[in-house]
Amino acid sequence: MITIAGAGLAGLASAYELAKRGRGVRVYELGEGPGENSVARFAGGMLAPYCERESSEEDVVTLGVTAVDWWAKVTPVIRRGTLVVSPPRDRAELTRFARRTSNFQEVDGESIGKLEPALKGRFQKGLFFQDEAHLDPRKALVDLTSKVQSMGVEIIYGSHAPANVDLNCTGTAAALSALRPVRGEMAVLHCPEVEITRTLRLLHPRMPLYLVPRSDNHFMIGGTMVESSSNRAPTLRSLSELMSAAFTLHPAFAEASVVEIGAGLRPAFPNNLPRLIEQDGTLYLNGLYRHGFLLAPAMAQQAAQRLLSERTDENHRERRTA
User: Do residues 151 and 73 make contact, with C-beta atoms less than 8 angstroms apart?
Assistant: First the structure.
C-alpha cells in the first residue's frame, strides 16, 4: 500500500497514476471533501503550455504538452485554444509575447471577430494558440476524486497523515526549506450579455489579465502578476485593476455581477518549476505554482515511476539478503 499526504491536485494526480499501474493507494486529507482544502479551486484551469512559456522555462512546454489529453480522460476539456490580445497602446506587449512563445497564428481584427464575435471591432491584432484548452478546476477535482476512488484508491478525509508517508503533496504546508508561498487572486463574474468561448489573455504592462469562460455566462478572471505572501482577501486595488481590464475586453463587463472573489497561496520554488524531492525517507511532489493543472499530470507520472522503482529496488535488496 502506497500512502500519500494531501488529496489536492498533486496528490490526486499521483494516486491516479499509481492506481493505473495496479498499486494500492491510501490518501490522507485534512479537508472534509473533494477539493475543499485545495488552492487549485482558485485556479483558472488553463491548459496553455505555449502561452505560459512567455514567463516560464521551456520545461513548462515540455511537461505540459500532454496535459490536455490526460485531463480529457478524467473531466470535460474545452479545446478552443487561447486568444491573446492587447489594446493599441500596448502593442509592444503583444510583440514581446510573440517573441517569447511559439505555436501560434497571428490574427488581425477580422479574424479576432470571427473567433470571438463579442470582440468584433475591439482589437486589431492578436495571437491565437489553437492547440491550447481549459477546464473547470472544481469539477476537475471532483471528477478526479471519483475516478481514483472507482479505481480502488482510499481517501481518508478529515485526517492528518501519519508521520511517515511515501509521498507528501501538502503544498505550502510541507516542510521544505526552498518552498515559498505565492499569492494568486481571482474573481468570478456573471455577464449574460457576453458570449466568449475560449480563454482570453489581455496584455498590459502592469496587469496582464486572463479570462476563462465557465458555464452559463460565468467567467473567471485573474491577474498573472498579482502576487504576495499574504493570505488575506483580495485588495480593492487588485480587484479594481482586474475589473478595469475586464471592461477593456468588453464594456458589458461593467454591468457583470461579481459572484465570487478569492485568494490562495500557491507553493513555488525559486525558479517556479515543480520538483520531486526526497527528504527523511519521504518523496515530496511540490511547487506546482500557477501551473498546477498543466504540470500535475507529467509530475504525477514521474512521482509514480520513482516510487515504484524504489519499491522494486527494495524488493531486490530484500531477496538478495534473505
Answer: no
Among 312, 279, 271, CA closest to 295: 271
Contact 132, 199 (CB under 8 A): yes
Question: In whole angstroms, what is the distance from residue 320 CA to residue 318 CA?
Answer: 5
What is the chain's length?
322
Give domain limits for the chain: 1-41+134-179+269-322, 82-130+182-268
Beta bridge partners of 212: 220
User: Could you give the angle at which helices 9-20 and 292-321 cross, rounded to 10 degrees?
Assistant: 50
Domain 82-130+182-268 of CATH type 3.90.550.10? no
pTM exceeds 0.90, yes or no: yes
DSSP state of 161: P
Which residues does 179 contact at the CB level (< 8 Å), separation at least 6?
172, 267, 268, 269, 286, 287
Taking only the tens place, the pLDDT of each residue in 117-137 is 999 999 999 999 999 999 999
What is the second-level CATH architecture of the domain 1-41+134-179+269-322?
3-Layer(bba) Sandwich (3.50)
Q: Which three cell numbers stand for residue 79?
A: 479545446
Distance between CA 19 and CA 4 in Å, rounded? Answer: 12
Per-residue pLDDT tens digits for 71-83? 999 999 999 999 9
